[in-house]
Design goal:
Elements lengths: L2 E6 L3 H12 L4 E4 L23 H12 L5 E4 L3 E7 L2 E6 L2 E10 L3 E4 L6 H4 L4 E2 L2 H4 L8 E4 L4 H9 L6 E4 L8 H9 L3 E3 L3 E7 L2 E7 L4 E3 L2 E4 L2 E4 L30 E3 L2 H4 L5 H24 L2
Parallel strand pairs: 1-2, 1-6, 2-3, 6-17, 8-15, 9-10, 9-15, 10-11
Antiparallel strand pairs: 4-5, 5-6, 7-16, 12-13, 13-14
Helix pairs in contact: 1-2, 1-8
């Protein structure tokens, strides 16, 4: 059997693509190892009709809806290898071999939070990375913002809309200009370039931050900037071009420059995105992929 499309990655982009292709009566293999980036998060926000849903519940509902379409199959497997073949692609996943005419990559990202003791226990509970996703829940609370790159200034300005009690920390690095420090200070935002020694909290709730010099400050929530890395390891083998941060280069419709391969969501951009944005990208890529299949069938 050869599928019309193999979708690698079962996050919002992959699931929405599977939904659209299923409704188009395409034979789809959805390959996903159930290791979502947002698994540590207690609730996902910003998605109409699903605001506040847990990531696991979102995936459960989505998988249930997608697999109602008889041409869509969900394979809970890790992809081990992908090869180009004359009729499309050969995918080795677990002990199965999947053949597909087209390939849609929606594998998302891996995130690594700064190596600060105590942070992992709080991450996804009272310390987050996305203000649009979790800023509302931390509104008006004393917050700390930790980033080791130039994005710290932007993040500080953004969070000022959610809380005016901010401590901005570059964790021992010099990433802010004097002008930026002055601008933040003029808004009563505290700037620290000290290295963070430890995050302390209880039951997932941040209570205190200690710096390397022994000083401490009480905080009840915060935001950090993780390191992002692509989950897709076959780009070079498949001849895919990537951008400066590892995203697979594709056009506005998700079509890459490698024949038969599409990419959507974070796999395409290389940067984190909200559920609703990734889902929309999956829908667009699915329509583009279906159109390509249709044109090929009518050219025979």
């Amino acid at each position: 059997m050869i599928y019309d499309c193999a979708i690698i990655g079962g996050g919002p982009a992959g699931l929405n693509a599977a939904l659209m292709l299923g409704r188009a009566r395409r034979k789809v293999a959805l390959l996903d190892n159930n290791q979502p980036r947002n698994a540590v998060t207690h609730a996902s926000h910003g998605f109409l009709t699903r605001d506040g849903v847990t990531p696991s519940e979102f995936r459960r509902i989505a998988n249930e809806e997608v697999t109602r379409y008889p041409s869509v199959e969900h394979h809970p497997l890790t992809v081990m290898d992908i090869q180009k073949i004359p009729e499309g692609f050969l995918i080795m996943a677990g002990d199965q071999v999947v053949r597909a005419r087209k390939l849609l990559i929606t594998t998302g990202l891996k995130e690594t939070v700064p190596d600060i003791p105590g942070l992992k226990e709080l991450y996804g509970k009272s310390v987050f990375h996305c203000p649009y996703c979790d800023g509302w829940e931390l509104r008006d609370r004393p917050l700390i913002v930790v980033a080791e790159n130039e994005g710290l200034f932007h993040l500080a300005k953004l969070l000022y809309n959610w809380s005016r009690d901010l401590v901005i920390c570059s964790n021992g690095r010099s990433v802010l200009t004097d002008e930026q420090k002055q601008k933040l200070s003029s808004h009563n935002i505290t700037v620290s370039e000290k290295r963070v020694a430890e995050f302390r909290g209880e039951a997932g709730i941040l209570q205190e931050v200690e710096f390397a010099d022994g000083s401490k400050i009480g905080r009840t929530g915060g935001f950090v900037t993780p390191h992002w890395q692509s989950n897709f390891v076959f780009s070079e083998r498949l001849g895919l071009e990537t951008n400066a941060i590892g995203g697979i280069i594709a056009d506005a419709m998700g079509k890459t420059r490698s024949p038969g391969i599409f990419a959507a969501g974070e796999a395409n951009t290389g940067a984190p995105s909200q559920l609703i944005v990734a889902a929309a990208a999956g829908s667009i890529a699915a329509a583009s992929l279906n159109l390509e299949l249709t044109e090929e069938e009518f050219s025979l």
